[in-house]
Task: inverse folding
């Protein structure tokens, strides 16, 4: 295998997922070979947030985000907040997420999703952590709610799925854009149009693994080692070299998440 010379950051991975339980060491070494030198492991409820923090404590190049996904909003209990706050006090935690609204699946009732989303935006603001937003079929609603929390240190829409108009609004507010495997899907001309207009320094690379693998691996489990396929597609869409895509997005993400470099 050719060892990549790129240095890229996977800003959104679910390494705690059961699909990685059997071969996480292999997944991590393939990530390093592909040039992924930082991974942010993102929680979706208290249990997975704990797992994310444990992984970050075990591997110095992995960081964690903690939070409750809109799918899991209905399962929140008073002790969830104490547990997450305690986790967030660990230095390996660099963001609060993923949080937001998912009006596509509505696994939790929309009112509950909003309540839990607002609660977490408040806590993140209090703790001074940037937030990782999950927005599925809820662009307008999400933007409306975020208006009430102007003091957040940073906002990234992970797996951005809005159109050019929504992107313009996010840009104007200083938000960032997580771009992953969906950019490589033949039918996703809308996202390629958005990426064409975005400044590279507002884009973060992400896999959202084990979900959303790039085109060559569709139907399979995604993993951080596939991230160069996203770099190549951004490079093609924007007409800049993969090295520029890697360098610019890495610098932007390291600054946003305040990643301490201890290489
Ligand atoms: Zn998500
Ligand atoms: Zn995710």
Result:
């Amino acid at each position: 295998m050719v060892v990549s010379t790129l240095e890229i950051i996977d800003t959104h991975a679910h390494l705690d997922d059961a699909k990685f339980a059997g071969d996480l060491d292999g997944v991590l070494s393939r990530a390093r070979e592909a040039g992924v030198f930082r991974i942010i492991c993102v929680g979706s409820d208290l249990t997975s947030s704990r797992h994310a923090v444990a992984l970050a404590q075990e591997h110095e190049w992995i960081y964690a985000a903690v939070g409750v996904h809109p799918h899991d909003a209905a399962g929140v209990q008073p002790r969830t907040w104490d547990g997450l706050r305690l986790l967030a006090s660990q230095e390996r935690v660099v963001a609060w997420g993923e949080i937001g609204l998912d009006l596509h699946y509505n696994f939790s009732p929309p009112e509950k999703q909003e309540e839990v989303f607002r609660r977490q935006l408040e806590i993140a603001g209090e703790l001074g952590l940037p937030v990782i937003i999950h927005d599925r079929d809820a662009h307008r609603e999400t933007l409306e709610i975020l208006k009430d929390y102007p003091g957040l240190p940073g906002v990234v829409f992970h797996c951005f799925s809005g159109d050019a108009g929504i992107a313009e609004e996010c840009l104007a507010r200083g938000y960032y854009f997580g771009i992953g495997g969906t950019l490589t899907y033949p039918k996703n001309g809308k996202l390629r149009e958005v990426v064409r207009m975005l400044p590279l320094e507002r884009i973060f690379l992400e896999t959202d693994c084990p979900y959303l693998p790039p085109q060559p691996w569709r139907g399979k489990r995604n993993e951080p080692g596939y991230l160069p396929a996203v770099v190549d597609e951004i490079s093609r869409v924007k007409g800049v070299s993969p090295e520029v895509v890697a360098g610019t997005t890495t610098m932007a993400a390291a600054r946003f998440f305040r990643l301490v470099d201890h290489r």
